[in-house]
Amino acid sequence: MTDLQAIVDDIHRELAPRFGEGKVADYIPQLARVDPKQFGMAVVTVDGAVHLAGEAEKAFSIQSISKVFTLTIALGKHGEAIWNRVGREPSGSAFNSIVQLEHEHGKPRNPFINAGAIAITDLVLAGHTPKEAIGEVLRFMRFLADEEDIVIDRDVAQSEQATGYRNFALANFMRSFEKLSHPVEHVLGVYFHQCAIAMSCRQLARAGLFLAASGTNPLTGHRVVSHMRARRINALMLTCGHYDGSGDFAYHVGLPGKSGVGGGILAVAPGKASVAVWSPGLNRNGNSLLGSIALEMLANRTGWSVFAA
Ligand code: GLN
Predict the structure, then answer these.
(1) Domain 66-196: which CATH number of 3.40.50.300, 3.40.30.10, 3.40.710.10, 3.40.1160.10
(2) Active-site hit among 124, 243, 253, 258
(3) pLDDT above 70 coverage of the chain, percent
């Protein structure tokens, strides 16, 4: 039997000399001042075993990892009709790229690049005030993680709002193509708050467990999505979850994953476990440098892969 705790401990110990590698996101002060030498990892298996290493209990800004969960909510509300608003193809460009959007007449390539996530947030907003929509996303995270003390870092949300010129550009651009139904300020208000949710690796791994277990959280018994929907969300994470680094992540790790500029990555080993890692230093694609390496080590040592039995 694989000793997962020993594997997680080994990864933490072996990577320790490299802590601090990569470049911390510096577009807002709240992320720029995060100590780059931190590292946390949590593996939660489908039968409920929890394996932690490093700072697995410390909350960090989940940023774009939130896009997996707003996609799940939007699919629940609107079903497959969401694909009229966003595509399902890898973008091959940066997470905040604007050029592609013009070529494609305001329809973003996929739900995980910023433009696509903003379009998805517009769908989450349907029938709600921004405040209610933010509440819905936060409640969903608490429900999935089965923990009430998950909060939004208001300072992060405010800084994102104050400096989010490019996201405003993307949203205005989509609005000009009539691809957003709500005012840009409302959509981005929700988007910045979902990005500012703070969670620990342990909480995040628990929240993602339904994706590793055919749509049902095996710890609470709650069916979150159907088997087919979980499979499809995983497919999108695999093909689009790391922006223009998605191919590289699939090659090295071989598991669906979603990164955030806060340095977190959620990865899913279907039928086995949900994994969250956090290390704030990013690689050139804006994905956690050591987080990606830690996941590659985990995949190699456990044999977990969606490409091999
Ligand atoms: N809040 C960030 C942004 O919108 C999220 C990007 C990310 O995590 N890749 O720019």
Answers:
(1) 3.40.710.10
(2) 243
(3) 100
